[in-house]
Each structure stands twice: as structure tokens, then as C-alpha cells.
Amino acid sequence: MNTVIEPRDERSQPARIVAGYPQTPWRNPRQPLVKRQPTLSELSGPLEVAKRVKLLGGDIAGYGEHQAIGQLIHLRVRVLDEDGAPVGGAMVEMWQANSAGRYSHPNDDDHAPPDQNFHGAARLLTDQSGSFELRTVKPGAYPVPTKDGWWRPPHLHFSLFGKVWLSRLVTQMYFPGEPLNMQDRILNAVPDVAARESMIARYLPPAAEPYNALVFEHRIVLRGRAATPAQPP
Ligand SMILES: [Fe+2]
């Protein structure tokens, strides 16, 4: 792995302060960044993350015999490093709202119904080709608790642990053709068009097998020039 840390690319990473998104000043440093060499632990760890937490699998479209409410989707994702090589054994965590746009979390309690068959969280490992799959339901849009009528488009949240801390990435994935994508302050905080589009999954024709679901394909790049932009958790 390339251990050089390049300066933050201001075009392909989100703007530090986003108008109308009140949390951004708290989440970003007020002082200029300081360049330093990576430490040994950043280059070598964390080791075997998956042994320290429980894997949950990637089939979260329902619990037990009950299907979650919503459009069934089959998502196929490939995880690559900065050289375009697949990252096998990466731990992937995903969380999302249900089809009505509500998270299964105590902080989300005000606008849409919960679905008792949907908890909206997956944790799994990529295979040796850097791939993983999710069977889930398409999340709904939801209103952000600001006073000016901002709704988030349907999206999935991802946290990925690559080989070492330097390849840690927290990001989001969006769906193609969603009208709310055009006005979303988080997606559009990334100035570069190609970088923004790299966060939008590709729609494939629905397939009867294996799930008779809507099929989407996506790619996540953990580091380097083509890195998928970071997005808030
Ligand atoms: Fe969200």
C-alpha cells in the first residue's frame, strides 16, 4: 500500500463549511491542517477488526419470516484501494433508514413509522475480490430537523475498515435518478461533479434471481486520487 498521505483534495472532498448545514462548523478543524508522517499504528492496524466485533451479515431485508416493508433491493459493491486493487477482508458496516425514512434509533422518533421487521444495519467482510452484497429495502427520504424544509434523499451510510487505519472511510451511497439528489446539501458539498457521481450507485435491470429485487451496483475506493468522498455518519 502506498503510505504517502497526499494533501486533502478540496475538489473531491466535501466543503468544510456548508451553508444551511449547521453541524459542519463543529465537525471541521478551524485551524489549517498540519502535515506529519503516519505513525506505525496507522500503517499497521487495526488488526483483525472482524474478530473483535460480531458480524451481522448482509441480508437485512427482514427478520425471521417477515419481510420488511419496501422495495427489495440487491446491492453489489466492490471495494478498491488507491491502485484499483480489490480490498479483500475489509470490514464493512452499513446503516440506513427504513422505507418510510425512519432510522431504528432512539434519536429518530418524530415523523415516520418504524418497521418492526427492519433494523437497518449490516456488518460483513468483503470477499477476496473486494466484493460484498446486501439484500435490503430501499430507504425512504427523510426531513432534516432544520427549519427550512431540507429533506435527505434516499441513501445508505457506510463505514469501511481497509487494511490499516489510513484506509478507513465513512461515506454515503445515493440512488440514481432521485430528484432530491439535486438539492441535498451533503451530497452537493463535494464540488467536483465526477466525485459526486462516484457516490451514486448504478441501476441495473431487475433480475429474477437470486432475490427478484431491484439491482444496484456500486464501487467504493478507500484512498488516493479516486477515493470515494467522505460523508458524515
Ligand atoms: Fe442518513
Q: How many strands appear in the DSSP assignment?
A: 12
> Which CATH architecture is right?
Sandwich
- Helix and strand content put the structural class at mainly beta
Radius of gyration: 18 Å
Number of helices: 4
Helix content bin: under 10%
Q: For the residues shown, what is the average pLDDT?
A: 92
Order of helices and strands: HHHEEEEEEEEEEHEE
Q: What ligands does this structure carry?
A: fe (ii) ion
CATH topology: Protocatechuate 3,4-Dioxygenase, subunit A
The largest β sheet comes out as:
4 strands, mixed
Classify the beta-strand content into a percent band.
25-35%
Give your account of this protein's structure.
This protein is mainly β. It has a single domain (24-221), classed as Protocatechuate 3,4-Dioxygenase, subunit A. 8% of the residues lie in helices and 27% in strands. The chain is built from four helices and twelve strands; from the N terminus they run H-H-H-E-E-E-E-E-E-E-E-E-E-H-E-E. The chain has helices at residues 24-27, 40-44, 49-52, 193-197; strands at residues 62-63, 66-67, 72-80, 91-95, 121-125, 131-137, 142-143, 151-152, 155-161, 169-174, 202-207, 213-221. It has a four-stranded mixed sheet with strand order 6-3-12-11, with no helix packed on it. A hairpin with a 2-residue loop joins strand 1 (62-63) and strand 2. The longest helix is centred in the N-terminal third of the chain and has 5 residues, at 40-44. The protein is globular. The mean pLDDT is 92. Fe (ii) ion binds at residues 152, 155, 157. Fe (ii) ion is lined by residues 152, 155, 157.
